Amino acid sequence: MSAPAPVGQRRDELAANLAALRLRLRQACADAGRSPDEVTLVAVTKTFPASDVRLLVDLGVTDIGENREQEARVKVEECPDLPVRWHFVGQLQTNKARSVARYAAVVHSVDRTRLVTAISAGARAAGRTVTCLVQVDLDERPPSEGRGGVPPERAVEIADAIATADGLVLGGVMAVAPLDADPRAAFALLAEVALAVREAHPGAVVLSAGMSADLEEAIACGATHVRIGSALLGSRPPLR
Ligand SMILES: *Cc1c(COP(=O)(O)O)cnc(C)c1O
User: Which of 140, 141, 153, 235 makes a 20 to 30 Å CA pair with 175?
Assistant: First the structure.
């Protein structure tokens, strides 16, 4: 194993990646006729250490995303002093919902009513309000590979459950583009689902879509939150 890079060197690397990413986001917004102010960058720091979170926040990042409960909890505990909004973006087991509700500002991956109930209980116990997004499964080839999400036609049902749950605020919708599919077609479908949810719940304006490989397509389809990992932090070791 090689020694970790000195902090100064890692800071320079993250600063350069962030500058390039901001440029890409600005260009994508310009191409879509949108203002960059409409798009929030969520830096997904999974597999990277809390020291990277610290550097990113120092460089001006305000929103940090994690996809595994245990890793997220440890990192949150390592950064109690940082002014960060924590986003939970991964699949969430019901028995981990209470823990996530203690620190997450936004849970992007809500796809069943039992999970709504569990996050609501956790939020109430912690005296917090948690914004929840309905994760939509855009893969039309069932069964999709366990990345979570409800079929588009059930999104409003989950949205209704979130909107009526104590301690929760319905933020909007989220999706991951299916593998080997045209991301623009997938995100166009997500935009339709988002519209249906907004018709029932006008305040639910969040559209969380777009990762390192497809942020342009997501912004063209109206993304308000992009979730960026590798383009910012570098490539991750393969997930086991
Ligand atoms: C890891 C992850 C991302 C970021 O992916 P990159 O391709 O590294 O930008 C976004 N969303 C979710 C749900 C993730 O798990």
Answer: 235
> 3-state class of 136 per DSSP?
strand
Q: Give the separation between CA 182 and CA 120, rounded to whole angstroms.
A: 35
* Ligand 1 probe mutation, 42, 63, 67, 135, most atoms within 8 A of CB: 67
* pTM listed for this prediction: 0.96
Pocket lining: 227 vs ligand 1, CB cutoff 6 Å: yes
CA distances (Å), origin 131, targets 47, 61, 68, 235: 24, 19, 18, 29
In one letter, which amino acid is 105? A
pLDDT at 147 (0 to 100): 76
Q: H or E segment at 117?
A: helix 113-126
pLDDT computed for residue 87 by the predictor: 98
HSE, CB side, 13 Å, CA atoms: give it for residue 234. 12
